[in-house]
């Protein structure tokens, strides 16, 4: 039974047309097929025997270690989501917030990850809070990722003996985007300017200003520090996973370079706007590993494995948790 105030309740969103669902499914499937085809083509060019040899050399314990490092990332960021939700004023518990956060991974392969806003729908059903009140959660969560990855990339480049210094501007852009996304006064000013310029959508503009002002709650030192620590640990764990994988495959390029390549490739993939960064992240990782002297017969399978144990592992978890989150939210809303 939903005991929230009816004043805060919002009507359920209209169902997604089946035609759009089919279009999205075809888009994701097409992109995934192109990535797999590209990796298969590179593997064929370098010789299938070498590629399969590298894959066979990894045992179950090593694959388990890579997945465990990814879990560190997911759970750390899930705890950060819980921290943000409580700071916003939501009364949702830890288990509930983790269910929302992990379930949203099922939508990670939507363009620009907009599908992850399904978490706002679940919150609306379970708490009665409209989307404009919970939207700051999604914004600050994305900003925290950008800030942490920018800092990790900058530090990794500083400690790397040589190499991809051209990635530093990407780190600066990501850090700037994270800073802008968490400046309530700046966002309010931009929204106000947009409204005065266009004179359109007054109610939507007012809601956007209200959502922007809510960002101030996340800028306190304890919240910002806790969120940054969780973010740094999580993303550094996945960067370390690439380092371990390269060591096991006999292509140790150093921890700093491996972390820098993983972080840069993840950011580059996100900048393309493609679902899950598909294509852009893989191409960047293979190219940068090649620049560091890693042969294609190692860089191609290494890229494929690290993407399976990070992106696709997250999607698999999301697909498992998603129906649980959907059922739980419908049960509360009933």
Could you please describe the fold and organization of this structure?
With 334 residues, the chain is mainly α. It has one domain. It contains 13 helices and no strands. It has helices at 18-46, 48-56, 60-88, 94-103, 118-127, 131-159, 168-181, 184-198, 202-213, 221-248, 255-271, 280-291, 296-333. Helix 3 (60-88) packs across helix 4. It is globular. 41% of the residues are buried. The model is unreliable at 1-17 (pLDDT under 50).
Poorly predicted sequence stretches spanning 5 or more consecutive residues: 1-17
* Strand count: 0
Number of helices: 13
Shape: globular
| Rg (C-alpha, Å) | 21 Å
Write down the domain tally. 1
Structural class by sheet pairing and helices: mainly alpha
**Percent in strands:** under 5%
**Fraction of residues in helices?**
over 70%
- Strand/helix succession: HHHHHHHHHHHHH
Largest sheet: none
Distance between the termini: 6 Å
């Amino acid at each position: 039974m939903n005991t929230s105030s009816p004043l805060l309740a919002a009507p359920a969103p209209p169902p997604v047309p089946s035609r759009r669902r089919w279009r999205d499914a075809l888009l994701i499937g097409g992109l995934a097929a192109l990535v797999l085809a590209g990796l298969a083509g590179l593997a064929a060019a370098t010789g299938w025997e070498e590629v399969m040899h590298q894959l066979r050399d990894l045992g179950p314990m090593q694959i388990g270690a890579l997945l465990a490092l990814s879990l560190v990332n997911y759970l750390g960021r899930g705890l950060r989501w819980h921290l943000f939700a409580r700071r916003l004023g939501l009364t949702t518990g830890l288990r509930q917030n983790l269910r929302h956060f992990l379930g949203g991974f099922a939508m990670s392969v939507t363009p620009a990850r907009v599908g992850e806003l399904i978490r706002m729908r679940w919150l609306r059903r379970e708490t009665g809070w409209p989307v404009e009140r919970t939207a700051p959660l999604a914004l600050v969560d994305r900003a925290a990722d950008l800030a942490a990855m920018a800092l990790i990339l900058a530090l990794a480049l500083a400690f790397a003996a040589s190499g991809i210094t051209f990635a530093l501007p990407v780190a600066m852009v990501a850090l700037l985007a994270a800073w802008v996304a968490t400046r309530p006064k700046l966002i309010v000013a931009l929204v106000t300017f947009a409204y005065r310029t266009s004179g359109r959508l007054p109610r939507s503009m007012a809601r956007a200003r209200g959502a922007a002002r809510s960002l101030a709650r996340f800028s306190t030192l304890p919240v910002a520090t806790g969120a940054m620590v969780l973010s740094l640990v999580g993303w550094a764990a996945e960067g370390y996973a690439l380092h371990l994988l390269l060591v096991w495959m006999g292509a140790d390029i150093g921890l700093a370079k491996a972390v820098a390549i993983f972080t840069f490739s993840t950011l580059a993939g996100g900048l393309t706007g493609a679902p899950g960064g598909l294509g852009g992240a893989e191409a960047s990782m293979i190219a940068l590993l090649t620049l560091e002297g890693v042969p294609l017969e190692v860089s191609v399978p290494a890229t494929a494995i690290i993407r399976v144990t990070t992106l696709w592992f997250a999607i698999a978890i999301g697909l498992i948790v998603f129906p649980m989150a959907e059922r739980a939210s419908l049960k509360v809303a009933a």
